[in-house]
Write a structure and sequence with these properties.
It comes from Bremerella alba. The protein is of the alpha+beta class. The protein is built from eleven helices and eleven strands. The protein is globular, with a radius of gyration of 19 Å.
Amino acid sequence: MLFQRLASKVSVLAPAKINLFLELLEKRPDGFHELETIMVAVSLFDRLEVTPTEASDLILDCAWDSGQLARATQLGHSSQLLGDLPPQDSNLVYRAVKLLQTEENVPHGARIALRKCIPSASGFGGASSDAAAALFAASQAWNLNLPIDRLSELAAKLGSDIPFFFYAGQLGSGQAIATGRGENIEPFPGRRLDLVLIRPPGGVSTAEAYRRCQLPEVPDSSNKLLASLKSHQSTSMPRQLTNRLTRPAREISTRIDQLAKICEQLDVVAHQMSGSGSGYFAICRNRVHARRVAAKLQAQNVGMVFPVTTCGLQSLRN
């Protein structure tokens, strides 16, 4: 995440993520899956601001970014392309700040403004990134200044993907391998990637995708991909990527197969669904290639299209 502490508030840009690799290892007794995934933060951002107040109330103002909403409306499927925004009490941002307030016995409250650009139900991690940003910003706004380990401990109570975002943007490399339910994070210094994200009309329920998935007899290995990301050699990226949730997502949304066929014809380095879908991504050779691929995808009216780069300390320096 990218953050700025101002006189009266803390402002954070919360990045999206993609899963370059996602394998399921076993079903746990608690109903979750033991998994291994390589996550990468990318430069598509929600904007969150936390203003501390003397009163103890928490007030969340959550809406789509006006430019993003206009763009989706122009494409003719705004609700299908952007997804739903949950009401305050069930919004992960509100629940995250409420948890922090309770656990740290904070007597004050906050006004929270969230303007979203990351489509929901896309596998791009928008809600999880927003929750991480909210925990970080509220900790700063209330002068708690909690360490990342403590924020990650709180985040893991709310969602498996959330701790990853404490290692992105100004806080880390933005590339990590995650295990357990996804909450055990091992960051690594990977190379910059230029990509195109696609959000087709209609999302995929994460719970439904996991309910339909089947465990592999022999799990795929992430070793080759991990070595490629650490090598800084663009020619070493494997063309075939793994996401064990692709098969059940294809049963739910026919858009996944359509996007795979289109990307196959675009001369990209590799392509795959992110998370539980329906969001899709294509890895491109460089920034110019990414813009060219994005233009071709937009011309085919496949949905919302975003040319992006990886979002970590190394990317920010380049």
